Structure formats: C-alpha cells, structure tokens
Amino acid sequence: MAEAERIIGTPGTPDDGGERTAAPGASEATGADQQSTAERRPGRGRRIAVLFAVAAFAYALDLVSKMIVVAKLEHHAPIEVVGDWLEFHAIRNPGAAFGFGGAFTIIFTVIAAAVIVVIFRLARKLYSFPWAVALGLLLGGALGNLTDRIFRSPGIFEGQVVDFIAPKGFAVFNLADSAIVCGGVLIVLLSFRGLDPDGTVHKD
Questions:
Q1: Interhelix angle for 105-122 vs 129-151, to 10°?
Q2: Rounded CA gap, 41 and 25, in Å?
Q3: Residue 106 to residue 157: CA distance in whole angstroms
Q4: How confident is the model at residue 111 (pLDDT cuts 50, 70, 90)?
Q5: pTM, two decimal places
Q6: Which of 10, 50, 12 is nearest to 199 (CA)?
Q7: Interior angle at CA 134, CA 130 and CA 138, nearest 5
Q8: Distance in angstroms (rounded) separating the CA atoms of residues 17 and 95
C-alpha cells in the first residue's frame, strides 16, 4: 500500500502548488490511471462553484442593465457619459458581438448554444481558478445574449440583442459582449502561460 502511494503521488493543484511525482523506476501512468487520479483531486467542486458564481453575476448584470436600457433609454436620445467619447445609445443588434454579421442571427444563436455546451463539458475537469473565472465570464456573456436571441423580437432564435455602450468611433456593445471578450482574453493569456483547465502547467 505504501509503495502504491509513492507511485501515485499527490496530484498538483492550484491550491497547494504540489507536483505529481513517481517513485524511481516506476513507469508513466496510463491514460486511465491519469483520469482516475484526476477524479480524486480535491478542489474541483470549488472551481465549479466559482465558474457558476461568475457566470451568474455576469448574466444578472447584463440582464438588469438591458431591462433598464429598454425601459429608460430605448427610443430616446443618447446619454453622454464622457462627453462625446462615450455615450449610452440603445440599439437592437441582429448580429454577433459588436454588431458584426447581422444577416446570420440564427447561426450566432446556434454558436452561442454550442459554446455553453462546451463550457459545461469542460467543467467536468476544471481544477484551475483562473480558468473557472474565464469560463464563467464566457458562460455569463453567452447566456446573456442567448436570452435576447430567444425572448426578444422579432421571434424565437431570431431575437435582436440590446446594445447600449457606444464609445466614439467604435461599435455599440453590451455587458455580455464585454464579459465574452474579457473571458476570451483571459483564456488566451492562460494558454500562453501553459495552464490547462485541469490545473496542469506545461513548461516548454
């Protein structure tokens, strides 16, 4: 039993900073052994909780902001926030984030739904806190815009997204778009650092 514990070792997690080690002369674990070890790692429940907490916060913030915009700003003159450099200007966007691809509303709806499914699948092997935050931002943003696609006019899966943040010389967007972009940038940074969702760090 002691020999088996030395061979398996303690898997490294972001919590304790440990690294997996093997006894001298021991062969590398098979894929099945690695999967079994990953399932025993502590902390996955906390990471999933962080993912859904971040997603819920981003989704709620986007939903409330859109409700206020529709009630108070739509069909009214834009509101200057920072002179003419930043305005709140309510528009309905049939396209993707930042107004691109207005002719492909249904396609973007399907893509958003697919992203949500992929995030739920990744959550099964999530042991990294930064990845939990990044995926939570993506999930919350995707859910925010998908809600518009499903429930707003002109119809189910063809609904137009409410955008209202209008920087000078840039496309109008919303908080869901911001969450998606922030999550995507964080994922790129984590990938450059070699950090995987399961907490493994690749050192090239």
A1: 150
A2: 24
A3: 6
A4: confident
A5: 0.74
A6: 12
A7: 165
A8: 43
DSSP letter string over the chain? -HHHHHHH-----TTT-------TTPPPPPHHHHHHHHHT-TTHHHHHHHHHHHHHHHHHHHHHHHHHHHHHTTTS--EEEETTTEEEEEEEE-SSGGG--TT-HHHHHHHHHHHHHHHHHHGGG---HHHHHHHHHHHHHHHHHHHHHHHSTT-TTTPPEEEEEEETTS--B-HHHHHHHHHHHHHHHHHHHTB-TTS-B---
User: If you search the block for the tokens 């690749």, which residue do you land on?
Assistant: 202
pLDDT top residue among 111 and 90: 90
pLDDT score for 25: 44
Q: What is the pLDDT of residues 101-110, one digit of tens each?
A: 544 567 777 8
> What is the mean predicted confidence (pLDDT) over 41-70?
92
Catalytic residue annotation: 163, 177
The pLDDT value recorded for residue 138 is: 95
Task: Mark residue 36 as left, alpha or beta (left: phi above 0; alpha: psi -120 to 50; beta: remaining).
Answer: alpha
When pLDDT is averaged across residues 23-27 and rounded to a whole number, the result is 44
pLDDT for 203: 72
What's phi and psi for 162, nearest 5 deg?
-85, 120
Q: Is the pLDDT of residue 196 over 70?
A: yes
Could you tell me if 150 and 94 are in contact, meaning their C-beta atoms sit under 8 angstroms apart? no
